[in-house]
């Protein structure tokens, strides 16, 4: 049964340490556990390895950990919209392990399922496969990828019940389910907590067995990563 915590700081108070590996859900700014990330920032832990699709943007989401100089290595799909992340990578300050997006998702899923490694065709013959073992199956070459397991997983869900079952909302689901299973300990930040049994079993995405702690988010701001507008055209009378 998950422990319901009043604040993100209390949810993480005995879970953070220098040099640990964090897996964090979200895609861009959608579905990011913003309160939990802020608590990591405030804790001052350093030398972190962060597994995430990307690192947010400057000043928002995982970008605050980059600004705080708390991250040593990132395992991600792309640099995205974070200019400081890109600059630190180019300057050699950050170690970055790039993964094809589907491969990253499968590495997290495999880690959560107890699968230490798997073969995939993605990346064969490119820099992605450099230094990795390859094998030929049925005349086709595959590259070996390792599953990912993190010391701590931080996710954002829409709803949790009091035992820790999670439901996500629309595109905020993204990487959160696979991240939730890949943590040795998983903490979920949610919009609302309901009584046990209030979530229909068919609607549960992440079962409570994967979730150790839950905190209700204090943030209601929905950040927009890119806003594109066009001039309104007048409709002829």
Automatic annotation (TrEMBL):
UniProt cross-references to SMART domains, sorted A to Z: CoA_trans
Assigned keywords, A-Z: Transferase
Keyword Nucleus in record: no
Entry keyword annotation includes Transferase: yes
Molecular function (Gene Ontology), one example: transferase activity
SUPFAM superfamilies tied to this protein: NagB/RpiA/CoA transferase-like
Gene3D superfamilies: Glutaconate Coenzyme A-transferase (3.40.1080.10)
Top-level taxon of the source organism: Bacteria
One family name in Pfam for this protein: CoA_trans
Protein family membership: Belongs to the 3-oxoacid CoA-transferase subunit A family.
Name this polypeptide is given: CoA transferase subunit A
